[in-house]
């Protein structure tokens, strides 16, 4: 079997796991790693600098912010790669970049393509309520998430999942697909299936304001937003007069304890658990781990006790 010359591109935990798979397969030769330096990755969620791996690969590592620039393209060209494996890069590859490997560029997208093209896919799917989902390995094209499918591995987004555990499922299923497909690419036995564009759906890129919570929503909807935007993402938040009140952990509370207060009011402080807030119509939610405005991350009940908050006090707009 011919060794498959592979360049890996990315800067997140999936990149790290993909590098491990490539290095353990006898059919692959890792000829380069392209990753993003910390100054270029500022503000990127889920960033992993891959420092020790980059140091180990030494001259076969390129730190760069623009995969389509002249420097990156020249660096790729001299390594005579068979494929470029894109495992988490927040930039669309141009046609010129896609033509650099002998075969093609391979991407991983956390959706059952052609369903779920676009950005912030896992965040939106958790907000929608989760369900049957999957991970796709595909041949990259200049248009995003439209190329032929090389492999697919299903998984489910469950009620217990948050964005961190959803990414864990993506990383595990990605490793499964790479272990199956890279040997097929090396010996030429792979198959590529065209996507049915008539079935395509697409998610839009999120903005910071998409994390805003509304006290008139029900507990289930608010919990889904919190699960979708907890660490390593910037967090879902309620609005207060002093600023944003970030919520990292929460759960639905017993509705029979609600006493027809205004939505956004403090129902009770549950010492050792959190604070109960009235929301929606006779609904309530337990806020557990939070970051109040101008403060640091803390348990909600400790913060409320320190602030001397009283039952019925309106906290959120």
Give an account of the 3D structure.
- With 317 residues, the protein is an alpha/beta fold.
- The chain folds into 2 domains: 4-203, Rossmann fold, CATH 3.40.50; 208-307, Methionyl-tRNA Fmet Formyltransferase, Chain A, domain 2 (Roll).
- It contains 8 helices and 15 strands.
- It has helices at 13-24, 51-57, 70-77, 95-98, 121-128, 163-187, 219-229, 300-307; strands at 4-9, 28-35, 61-63, 83-86, 104-109, 117-118, 131-139, 149-157, 202-203, 236-240, 243-252, 266-270, 274-279, 283-291, 298-299.
- The strands form 3 sheets. Strands 3-2-1-4-5-7-8 form a 7-stranded mixed beta sheet, with helices on both faces. Strands 10, 11, 12, 13, 14 and 15 form a 6-stranded antiparallel beta sheet that branches. A two-stranded parallel ribbon has the order 6-9.
- A hairpin with a 3-residue loop joins β13 and β14 (283-291).
- The protein is elongated, with a radius of gyration of 23 Å.
């Amino acid at each position: 079997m011919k060794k498959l010359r592979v360049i890996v591109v990315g800067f997140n935990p999936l990149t790290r796991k993909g590098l491990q798979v490539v290095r353990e397969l006898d059919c692959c030769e890792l000829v380069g790693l392209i990753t993003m330096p910390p100054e270029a990755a500022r503000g990127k969620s889920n960033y992993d600098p891959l420092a020790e791996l980059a140091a180990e690969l030494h001259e076969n590592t390129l730190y760069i912010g623009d995969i389509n620039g002249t420097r990156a393209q020249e660096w790729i060209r001299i390594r005579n790669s068979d494929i470029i494996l894109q495992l988490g890069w927040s930039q669309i590859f141009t046609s010129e970049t896609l033509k650099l490997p002998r075969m093609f560029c391979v991407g991983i997208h956390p959706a059952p393509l052609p369903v779920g093209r676009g950005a912030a896919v896992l965040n939106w799917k958790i907000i929608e309520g989760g369900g049957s989902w999957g991970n796709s390995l595909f041949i990259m094209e200049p248009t995003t998430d439209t190329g032929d499918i090389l492999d697919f591995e299903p998984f489910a987004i469950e009620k217990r999942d948050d964005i961190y555990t959803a990414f864990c499922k993506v990383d595990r299923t990605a490793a499964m697909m790479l272990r199956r497909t890279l040997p097929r690419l090396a010996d030429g036995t792979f198959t590529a299936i065209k996507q049915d564009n008539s079935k395509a759906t697409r998610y839009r890129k999120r903005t910071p304001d998409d994390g805003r919570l509304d006290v008139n929503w029900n507990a289930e909807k608010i919990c889904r937003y919190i699960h979708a935007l907890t660490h390593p993402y910037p967090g879902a938040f309620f609005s207060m007069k002093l600023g944003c009140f970030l919520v990292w952990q929460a759960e639905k509370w017993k509705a029979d304890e609600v006493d027809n207060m205004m939505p956004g009011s403090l129902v009770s402080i549950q010492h050792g658990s959190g604070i109960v807030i009235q929301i929606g119509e006779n609904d309530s939610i337990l806020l557990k781990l939070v970051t109040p405005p101008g403060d640091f991350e803390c348990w909600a009940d400790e913060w409320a006790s320190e602030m001397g908050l009283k039952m019925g006090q309106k906290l959120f707009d």
